[in-house]
Design goal:
The chain has about 325 residues and is of the alpha+beta class. It has 2 domains: about 1-220, 4-Layer Sandwich (Glutamine Phosphoribosylpyrophosphate, subunit 1, domain 1); about 235-325, Serine Threonine Protein Phosphatase 5, Tetratricopeptide repeat (Alpha Horseshoe), CATH 1.25.40.10. The chain has helices spanning about 1-20, 80-85, 90-100, 150-160, 165-180, 220-245, 250-260, 265-280, 285-295, 300-305, 315-325, and strands at about 30-35, 40-50, 60, 65-70, 110-115, 120-125, 135, 140-145, 190-195, 210-215. The strands form 2 sheets. The protein has a 6-stranded antiparallel sheet with strand order 7-8-1-2-9-10, with helices on one face. It has a 4-stranded antiparallel sheet with strand order 3-4-5-6, with helices on one face. A hairpin with a 4-residue loop joins strand 5 (about 110-115) and strand 6.
Length: about 325
């Protein structure tokens, strides 16, 4: 009860900011989607706008709680306060209703919320700049304002429903569909995506599955897709590192192989893949990879002899000498 009373006090304080109608970034008009994948236990939000660093203000999500998109004449506090209300047990519709009630300018807001149980709420104020609208479907809400066409939100919903893959793939597909409908009348500039688990272990700082932003780019959605691939490569790298530390070299090698396939031009991924191969005695497989890495940057060759001290490579001078023999 004390927590809820404190939360109400915080909401009232936050309400002061909402009531002024003074948005820090008043022109974050955009298209976005909030969604849940109940089968894999993920919840997320994605956005694109002709506005610098759109993700800083629009996208909010917390594991085990929910996700929020706050846009149009943006009142940023809908994000953190919406999450706080949902964390306190409010459904997404109740949380949004409570915040709209203390907003003196709700007509210029567009806000969507989804909680970890899949409840969805969306508000498109009557003074949002046309074309503006929303589409609520099973497990998602797509919303947009200042669009060239009024077909954007329906296209986003169809793309989300019709795309295979994990939640991040489906969210990005929705953004692409919006852009294929001409999207923001002003064009493109930035994009962002956050995906978290529908359940929390009490460590929200470690429970973001995806958290990516493109701050300023002529084609932010393509860049977001590229970053998502790199992120996945590093996820496999991290798994490989974990197996490596446990001396499970075969499993580590498999993870590094997948990472290298996803990001074939990444020298660091190649380097640690080669180190793993050399450690498990597959030196003939490792040497061609080392050669490519050293050709990219000889500092990797400088690093190599330092690894035995950190127990990341056998303390075998003959092995190290053989590896360094491929330096050109």
């Amino acid at each position: 009860m004390k927590y809820f009373q404190m939360l109400c006090f915080m909401i009232l304080l936050g309400g002061l900011a909402i009531a002024t109608g003074e948005a820090r970034d008043p022109f974050v008009h955009t298209y976005s989607i909030v969604a849940i994948d109940e089968k894999i236990g993920q919840i997320g939000v994605a956005v694109q706008s002709h506005w610098f660093s759109v993700g800083s203000d629009v996208t909010w999500a917390e594991a085990g709680v929910g996700a929020v998109a706050t846009q149009s004449f943006t009142e940023v506090s809908y994000g953190p306060l919406g999450l706080q209300l949902m964390k306190a047990g409010k459904t997404a519709p109740d949380a949004l209703k409570a915040l709209i009630a203390i907003d003196k300018n709700p007509d210029v807001r567009q806000v969507a919320m989804i909680d970890a149980k899949g409840n969805i709420a969306v508000h498109t104020g009557k003074s949002c700049i046309p074309e503006a609208g929303q589409k609520i479907g099973k497990n998602f809400s797509a919303q947009a304002n200042l669009m060239l066409k009024n077909t954007v939100w329906d296209a986003m919903g169809k793309a989300f429903d019709g795309t295979q893959g994990d939640l991040a793939d489906r969210l990005v597909a929705a953004l692409e569909a919006a852009q294929n409908e001409s999207g923001d009348i002003r064009g493109m500039q930035s994009a962002a995506i956050i995906v978290v688990s529908t359940k929390s272990a009490g460590t929200p700082w470690a429970e973001k599955i995806v958290d990516l932003r493109v701050e300023d780019n002529p084609n932010p959605i393509e860049e977001l897709k590229r970053l998502l691939t790199v992120r996945r490569a590093y996820d496999h790298m991290n798994k490989g590192d974990a197996y490596f530390s446990e001396k499970k070299m075969d499993q580590a090698n498999k993870e590094y192989e997948i990472a290298e396939q996803l990001a074939p031009d990444n020298a660091e991924i190649k380097f640690w893949h080669a180190v793993t191969l050399a450690t498990i005695g597959k030196i003939d497989e490792a040497l061609p990879i080392f050669k490519k890495v050293f050709a990219i940057d000889k500092n990797w060759a400088t690093l190599l002899p330092r690894l035995p001290k950190a127990t990341l490579l056998p303390d075998d001078q003959q092995l190290i000498k053989k590896i360094l023999s491929v330096v050109k």
